[in-house]
Amino acid sequence: MAPDTVSLRYFLMLAQELNFTRAAARIGIAQPALSARIRRLEAELGTALVVRNTRSVALTAAGAALAEAAPPALAALDRAWDTARSAATGELGTLRIGHSLSAGAETVPALVDRLMRDNSGLQVSAVPMATPEIVPAVADGRIDAGITRGEQPGRGVRRFLLRRMRVGVQLARHHPLAEHAEIEITDAAAYPLRLPDRAANPVVHDQLTTLFRDIRPQPRFHTPAVAFDMSQTDLRDGATLAPAGEAAISTQAAGLTWRPLRGAPSLVIHLVLPGEQSPLHRRIRAVAKTLAHELDWLPD
C-alpha cells in the first residue's frame, strides 16, 4: 500500500533540512509530531529512511532513493487531483456545439472563443447543422449544446435566452430606403422580399413573414433557387430586400447595408442544453451568461 502523501511530503522536507527541528518549523508542526510521522512512514515501508543521532540526521540508501523518486510522483498526483477538480467544475472535457449557419456568423465564434480562452482544458468543436435538427441532437446526446435562432420546438432540453436582436432588412447601399435610419414595415413591403427556404428554419421564416401579414396589398416573397448566401445579385441591384436580424451586419457582402424595421419584434437566439446537466453544461451556461452581459446581447 502506498504511504499517505502528507507523511511523504514531511519526509521530503526532512530530507532537505536533515534536521528535525528545522524541518518541523518549516512545516509548522511540533518536532515530536514530525518524528512520529517519519517512524510511521518507515513502518509502512518496512525499512529505515534516516539515521538519527543527537547531532545529525542522515539519509539511508532507501531514504535517498525515496527523496529522489517522490517529487515527480507527487507532482503527477497533484496534476491528477487538478484534472479531477477541473472535470468536476466543467473546465475539462470535449464540448460539441451545434449551430445554424446564421448563428455561426457571429454569435457562435464569440462563445467558442470565450470558452477556449477561459478554460484551457476544454476542447470545443462547433458543428454547422440544419436548425430543425439541433434540438433533437441535444436531447439525444449527439451534441452537448446548441445555438438556435427563434423559439425552436422540442422536448428533453432546456433553453436559455442568449441574445435578442433587432429585425431589419438587408438592402443595397444605393437603395432609396437606405437613406433612413429606420424603415417602416409598410415601406419595405412595397418591394419584393427575399427569404431563405422555409425548411431551413420554419420558426424564423414564419416570424419574418408574419411581420407583413396585415400589409395590403400583400408583399411579394421571393425564395432564390440557389442557396440564400450563394447569390445576392438581386439584393445588390436594389431589386429586393432581405428581412434579417442585425447580426447580418457582420457578414453582409460589399455593396449591402442593413436597416432596422420600426416596431418589429426582436429575433431571439437561444443556448440549448440537455434537461439533465453535467458540470460541463453548467460551465457553458455560466460562460454564455457572462458573455451575453459583456456584449450587451440582452438589452433591456
Automatic annotation (TrEMBL):
Pfam families: HTH_1, LysR_substrate
Keyword Transcription regulation: yes
InterPro entries: LysR_HTH_N (IPR000847), LysR_subst-bd (IPR005119), WH-like_DNA-bd_sf (IPR036388), WH_DNA-bd_sf (IPR036390)
Superkingdom of the source species: Bacteria
Protein's UniProt keywords contain Transcription regulation: yes
Keywords: DNA-binding, Transcription, Transcription regulation
Positions of the HTH lysR-type domain: 3-60
GO molecular function: DNA binding; DNA-binding transcription factor activity
PROSITE patterns named among the record's database cross-references: HTH_LYSR (PS50931)
This protein's GO CC annotations: protein-DNA complex
Family: Belongs to the LysR transcriptional regulatory family.
Record's protein name: DNA-binding transcriptional LysR family regulator
Lineage per the UniProt record: Bacteria, Bacillati, Actinomycetota, Actinomycetes, Micromonosporales
